[in-house]
Specification:
The protein is elongated, with a radius of gyration of 18 Å. It has one domain: Phage tail protein-like (STM4215-like, 2-Layer Sandwich), CATH 3.30.2000.10. With about 150 residues, it is of the alpha+beta class. It has 3 helices and 5 strands, in the order H-E-E-E-H-H-E-E.
Length: about 150
């Protein structure tokens, strides 16, 4: 998993200049009592899960997993109603430009260590703290020989 994390982090850091912070997702956005998370925005937080493993040998497994990129953006004046002008609308919807860049950057991305990432789902989180948080999940497959 370390190999996947480092490759995805490097790819985002190299290809997308929009992010002020890229890190492992260990719950930084989950604050209590409406506190503002101690992050630079916009940020990308990377999570990796192994969902299914099958033995190849006693010490080697074929694994399927999920790479999640959780993006958080400063609260914007969300003004998307039918009365606003196009310039205001474009500014309000600007996080979607970064979201599209992340999809384009990671869809099909692969290394010698893992097969091509493939988007499985994406969507926003409803939050009370005003942050705009959006997640894209990618399927990943790899062979784990750690036990050898």
């Amino acid at each position: 998993m370390k190999t996947i994390y480092k490759a995805v982090r490097a790819k985002l850091k190299t290809d997308i200049s929009d992010f002020k912070w890229i890190d492992e997702d260990f719950g930084q956005l989950n604050t209590s009592s409406g506190q503002r998370p101690a992050l630079a925005f916009p940020c990308a937080l990377i999570g990796i899960k192994i969902c299914d493993c099958k033995d190849i040998t006693d010490k080697s497994q074929s694994c399927k997993g999920t790479v999640t990129v959780r993006m958080a953006f400063d609260p914007l004046m969300k003004n998307t109603n039918s009365k606003v002008d196009n310039e205001t609308l474009d500014k309000s919807l600007s996080p979607y430009d970064t979201i599209a860049k992340v999809y384009a950057c990671l869809q099909g991305f692969e290394t010698e260590s893992f097969n091509a990432l493939s988007r499985r789902n994406q969507g926003d989180e409803k939050r009370s703290d005003g942050l705009f948080v959006y997640t894209i999940s990618f399927a990943v497959e790899f062979e784990d020989n750690t036990a050898e």
